[in-house]
Amino acid sequence: MNIKIWLKLELLLANSFILLFVLAFVGGCSSADGDMSNNYNNQNKECITDDDCINPGEICGPENRCLIQLDPLEIPMGVELYDQRTGSSSRGKLLTDFGPLDLEVAVDGKIHLVLPEPYTISGKVTTTEGIVDSTLITYRISAIPGKDVVSQTIPLGAINSDPGVDYSIQFYKHDDYFFQLIPNPVVDYASILKYFDGQGSETIDFELGKVNYKVQGNIVNDNDVPINGAQVFIFDFQTGAASTITQTTADSSGFFEVQFSNIPSTLSIFVGPSEVVSSIPSLRFDIDNSELVNGSTNHDGIMVYEAGKLHLPALPGPIMFGTTIYGRDHSGSVQAVSGASVSFTTEVGGGSEDDGVFGVKGTTDANGEVMVEVIPGNNEQGRVYEVKVATPKDSPFSSINKDIEVGFLSGFGESIELENRISFAGQVVDPSGNPLSGITVEASFSNDEELNPIENLDSIYQNSEQTDSTGWFSMLLDQGYYDFFVQFFNTGFWANSLFQQQLVSGDETANTFVFTAPDAALVKLVVEDEQGNPVPEIMLKSYQVSEECPLTGDCTYPARLLSSGKTDLNGEVILIVPIL
Question: Which H or E run includes 231?
Fold first, then answer.
């Protein structure tokens, strides 16, 4: 089994009972300071054929301009192929992708990409007995580092034991795949996970089994007091089987029971707060297969594992605690900050596993006040909470992370004063210094944790603006290092560019930046079938792999969209890329 895929998919599989969206984050990369060799004047030369371009390394590109032809490894980049063929059954779908090391320039100066013949995975889905709705999801890792997981979802509808439901899925990419079959609801049946090496057509059948294995236990605190109403979720990472989310019963024992079709390979038991009981921490308890095998007993034909008492830390009763979020305008007047998301998080010791985590979240009202139910400290020592304040993106006040100590009495604690956001101004120009209007600029915190320690900022904060007729835009930003993604879609000539690790500081006189569109270059690609015939009407999207990523394998830094184009009757397409 491919360990790389397995590790990547663990988190996805753990959340497979909510609607899965794989978000493709698109962008582009370029030089951060705009100090690039300027070939723009040469690019103004008009051309009809490559022979009209007299400078070494140039060929005739879009808008009849002579452009340098780059090796894609100079960027580096990957490419996705989407079907745009008229009448195709897979029209609009991603067919396959190629990583940086797959893009080799041939002696004719073109990159020849082979679109393989499709192969089919088909089979039958049945139940051992009864009827249940089901969904089939396939997963694989993208060939482009930073592009994450590629998946597709196939609703199968109601599944029965006979005749069941037939399915058929067409693939082009020869790669490692996971197939996960998820019944809905997951009460009488458990999900199934299968691995497939993706080398050709194959039959893969699924049979959803009735429950014949149970896990039972009791949730109590360190004083053996039952915790009623806690949320319990149990997951088997090895097979993808999972329980339904359940709650401990409102009896005197904190009892819970979850069901599986077969004995799990391993178990992770997640216990946390619910709408019934909110003042308990979240903990995870792990049970390996040997414990399950040795500890299971037969109860009327169903194997049952008794997990026993799972101890959560014994905590004092909750109290209501609040704080006020405010800032000061430039005249020094106090301004309440409304609509800010405020989270309180603390670690709590004890329990039969590692320390737990307790957290709550609220939103400030018109007076900048937020009240939440928290676990208090005691007479001798307060409990320290990490408080994260995330303000709306249009707020003049910046987000903040701060530690606050909570005592043993309800009420308001210390107020939190926010700093003013920084007024940031920038201009987007072409390589000759001419302003570009209507260009979208997106700002997000740089991923480098050495520059932006994650505990010091609101990591999800983003802002975007468009340039005006003079090429200028302005934003209100927190202090820190930013990546500015400049989208040149409207120009049709320059590739999208990422200006990385730009410092937005408290010195507003230093926060005026000029983003120069990088000189354009091109790569020429040809899409062919396995017999060498051109394949027209295929949409290609090029992505720049982050400089922090390897050329193969997984990477947490997102790949950024550079440009796109569709193959002509000769199967050829030219993609614009930046000269870095």
Answer: strand 231-235
Distance CA 276, CA 289 (A): 32
Contacts of 134 (CB under 8 A, 6+ apart): 125, 156, 157, 159, 165, 181, 182, 183, 184, 208
Phi (first) and psi of residue 291, to 5 degrees:
-65, -40
Do β-strands 296-299 and 400-406 pair in parallel, antiparallel, or remain unpaired? unpaired
- Specify which residues 400 forms β-bridges with: 389
Report the C-alpha gap between 162 and 476 in whole angstroms: 62
Give the bridge partners for 296, in sequence order. Answer: 305
> DSSP code of 65?
B
Cα–Cα distance measured from residue 396 to residue 336, given in angstroms and rounded to the nearest whole number? 11
Domains of the chain: 3-23+117-202 (2.60.40), 213-312 (2.60.40.10), 319-418 (2.60.40.1120)
Q: 277: which 2 tokens?
A: 């009981």
Q: Which amino acid appears at position 134 of this protein?
A: S
3-class secondary structure for 497-550? Answer: EEEEEEEECCCHHHCEEEEECCCEEEEEEEEECCCCCECCCEEEEEEECCCCCC
The beta-strand segments (E) located in 329-439 are 334-336, 341-348, 356-363, 369-374, 383-390, 400-406, 411-412, 416-418, 422-429
For residue 214, how many C-alpha atoms fall within 13 Å in the half-sphere facing its CB?
17
Both tokens of residue 517? 């569109």
Q: How many helices (H) and strands (E) does the chain have?
A: 3, 41
Question: Within 13 Å and on the Cβ side, how many CA atoms surround 420?
Answer: 14
Provide the residue-wise pLDDT of the chain in tens; the chain has 580 residues. 333 444 344 444 444 433 332 222 223 333 333 333 333 444 456 888 888 988 888 888 877 888 888 888 888 999 999 999 999 988 999 999 999 999 999 998 899 999 999 999 999 999 988 899 999 999 899 999 988 788 889 999 999 999 999 999 999 999 989 898 888 876 677 777 788 888 899 999 998 877 778 888 999 888 888 888 888 888 776 666 666 666 777 567 889 888 777 788 888 888 888 877 877 888 888 888 888 888 899 888 888 999 889 888 878 888 999 999 999 988 889 999 999 999 999 888 755 555 678 888 999 999 999 999 998 887 777 889 999 998 988 889 988 888 999 988 888 888 999 988 888 889 999 888 999 998 999 888 877 667 765 555 555 567 888 999 999 999 888 888 888 889 886 555 777 888 888 888 877 666 778 999 888 888 999 999 999 999 999 999 999 898 878 898 878 788 888 888 999 999 999 998 888 7
Give dist(CA 115, CA 96) in Å, integer.
8
Cα–Cα dist 322/373, whole Å: 9
pTM: 0.71
Q: CA nearest 405: which of 426, 422, 425, 387?
A: 387
* Among 339, 341, 375, 378, CA closest to 359: 375
User: How many C-beta atoms surround the C-beta of residue 379 within 10 A?
Assistant: 8
5: three-class secondary structure by DSSP: helix
What secondary structure does DSSP assign to 415-444, as a single string? -EEEPBPEEEEEEEE-TTS-B--S-EEEEE
Phi, psi of 73, deg, nearest 5: -70, -15
